[in-house]
Amino acid sequence: MTYFVFIVVMFIDLDHLLATPIFDSNRCSINFHPLHTYYAIAVYVGFLFFKKTRILGIGLLLHILADSVDCWMM
């Protein structure tokens, strides 16, 4: 079950379709795309406090961490 939740959290990247251009290798997605904003990240942290949403919160925060590493390496 946890595996499928971790796969589903990749749908967070659908907000990239709202950007023009959709992909820019020199753009940091943190605080640029709606589901990658600091407000959204605060909600993801809030998911950690509830047992039913904890795995989802962990998956989303791991996704944000991976995107942050991309930003740091630019």
Question: How many distinct helices?
Answer: 3
Mean pLDDT: 93
Give the N-terminus to C-terminus distance in angstroms: 34 Å
**Residues in helix, %:** 40-55%
Low-confidence stretches: none
As a whole number of angstroms, the C-alpha radius of gyration is 13 Å
Question: What brief labels describe this structure?
Answer:
74 residues, 3 helices
Descriptive notes:
This protein is an all-alpha fold. It has a domain of 44 residues. 49% of the residues lie in helices and 0% in strands. It is built from three helices and no strands. α1 crosses α3 and α2 packs antiparallel against α3. The longest helix is centred in the C-terminal third of the chain and has 19 residues. The termini are far apart.
